[in-house]
Design brief:
This protein has an eight-stranded parallel beta barrel with strand order 1-2-3-4-5-6-7-11, surrounded by five helices. Strands 8-9 form a two-stranded antiparallel sheet. A two-stranded parallel ribbon has the order 10-12. The chain has a single domain, classed as Alpha-Beta Barrel (TIM Barrel). It has nine helices and twelve strands. The longest helix is centred in the N-terminal third of the chain and has 13 residues. It is α/β, with parallel strands linked by helices and about 220 residues long.
């Protein structure tokens, strides 16, 4: 990937379809591609446990990255939260949470400003709009905000909702998720058309890490 794009974007390891379940491989690929900002996509409990094991065995595994964040489990957390709790408490990074899953988890207050809530796509019952996020931030007043521009699109193809979210919560903005997406919330490769559509929102997020949650497709590198 061209230096200009790796300078503008970071990578979420969930973008790597072949490597996403293999931490050494996904980290090696991110380093090889020149990314300095990374989100570790621990979307399932088993992936989070594997991550904490890796970091315990190799405390310098992330040394070459300037900024690191972690995406908390979402798919299976509600079934049994216990495997994730201590691991998330111990990680020294920003932790991105789905508010529909975690809004009643009071222990998140222990993370203070390291807790970050992400706006949700149209398939979720909570966390999609300004009111929902305001409710989450009222419960966790020190938490940050992750704007997911693709999730915005599923709720409002005009993207006006994204500007409303930034108007209301931009002071909390910690990072941005960027990807292609289908109407049903399924992520797909990120195209030039996606980036052009998102640009007015991304322009409002200067100085904040932009993280690709899906690889670039058809974008000159």
């Amino acid at each position: 990937m061209a230096a200009s794009l790796t300078a503008r974007f970071g990578i979420a390891t969930g973008a790597y379809v072949d490597e996403r379940d293999d931490w050494p491989s996904s980290l090696a690929r991110a380093r090889q591609e020149g990314f300095s900002t990374i989100e570790l996509t621990a979307i399932r409990n088993e992936r989070l446990i594997a991550l904490t094991t890796l970091l315990a065995d190799d405390p310098r595994a992330l040394d070459r990255f300037v900024r690191v964040s972690v995406h908390a489990p979402a798919r299976d957390f509600v079934d049994d939260p216990r495997p994730a709790l201590e691991s998330l408490r111990a990680l020294p990074y920003d932790i991105v949470f789905h508010p529909d899953v975690y809004r009643e988890q009071g222990w998140i207050r222990e993370l203070v400003s390291r807790a970050v809530f992400e706006n949700m796509d149209s398939t979720k019952a909570f966390g999609r709009d300004v009111g929902d996020l305001s409710e989450a931030f009222a419960a966790f007043p020190d938490a940050g905000f992750c704007l997911d521009v693709a999730h915005v699109w599923t709720n409002d193809p005009s993207l006006a909702l994204g500007h409303e979210l930034l108007d209301a919560h931009g002071g909390r903005l910690r990072q941005v998720h960027v990807s292609g997406i289908e109407a049903d919330g399924t992520h797909r490769p990120t195209t030039r058309a996606d980036l052009e559509l998102y640009e007015p929102l991304l322009a409002r997020c200067s100085g904040v890490p932009l993280l690709l949650e899906a690889e670039l497709d058809g974008v000159a590198t």
